[in-house]
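Check out one such.
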Amino acid sequence: MASTDPNDVFVPTFSRSGSPLVRGEGMYLFDADGKRYLDFGSGIAVNALGHGHPAIVAALREQGSLLIHSSNLYFTQPQLELATALSAKTFGGKVFLCNSGTEAIEAAIKFSRKWAAQTSKEKYHILSFFRGFHGRTYGALAATAQEQFQEGFGPMLAGFHYAAFNDSAATKAILDKHDYAAIIVEPVQGEGGVNPASREFLQFLRDYANEKNIALVFDEIQCGMGRTGTLWCCEQYGIVPDILAAAKPLGGGLPLGAVVCKDHIARAISPGNHGTTFGGNPLACALGCVVLNIISQPVFLSAVVNNGAALKNGLAALAASHAGIKEVRGRGLLVGVEMNKDPKELIPLCKEKGLLLIKAEQNTVRFMPPLIVEEKNIKAALAMFEQVLVQCKL
């Protein structure tokens, strides 16, 4: 007799349970049993415009009826429009479109090394930071300085080194040991526990990279695209990277990633050095144009700032009355609640209440609602979260 457990047909890369999700509407997801969930995970920071946004649906229908795939042997109109917009809304660099965040990081690593090789064949080292997360393919995994993700998949690629996040002195000591092609950093670490970089630290990295001719790569896959209250998180620091990696919300729910790099790095790349079959396909790019246009509006970003403050303040108020909460931190609508113990039991209980949250490292619970969240949604989420805190006696 065939198994009725859905997990039996999948490689066990995820721990999943419950009724399958069947549809979404605005801030909510619905499962096959009809249960409604307030989505404060956004598909891991993907669904910035919530579920079933009219502009996304319209773009799907229009572009889906015109052209879905033609390969990167040719230009397509949506691809041109998106690349032009990304260049204009960053630092005027050249754009490479791919399928995901981990692919964006792979490209950033390759572009950095190819550019640096013009100076010296020994200039190939890559620095990243403890508690950072950059993806699960081998280059991105080698840059992810968390043992739990690398365990069992060694040896890692050569030339990758790690330093303490937000520690300029310790970082300089590591940087001084090798000839680096790139420094990769998240302005706000997401998977690592929602840890914002200090401005002094990012400025140190920018200054050192300038002095030593190193590519500074900002991984804004989770913290970019309006999530922290500006279109790109680095805008809040006033620091411009040499390469910016974006993905997650960019494709409006379809796989889409992007690398924007300064001209001097792009000039090191020739046809055949890198590529992708599906990256930048017309359908994903059509959605990307819609998402980028909506999110980059000042009124939209102002609402993210205001709602982010309301969420963070509400969680801080809970922290004042619940000893189980150690710290609340984050920027915009990327907020982490660090608990005094592993919140592995807390997340499923919140789901039972109808609230979807996501765990991060450092015993942290991530609150990442769609950027269209309203005050009433925040109040509902806070109420459900507090009910679970009381239930767990935290």
User: Anything to note?
Assistant: The two ends are 44 Å apart (CA to CA).
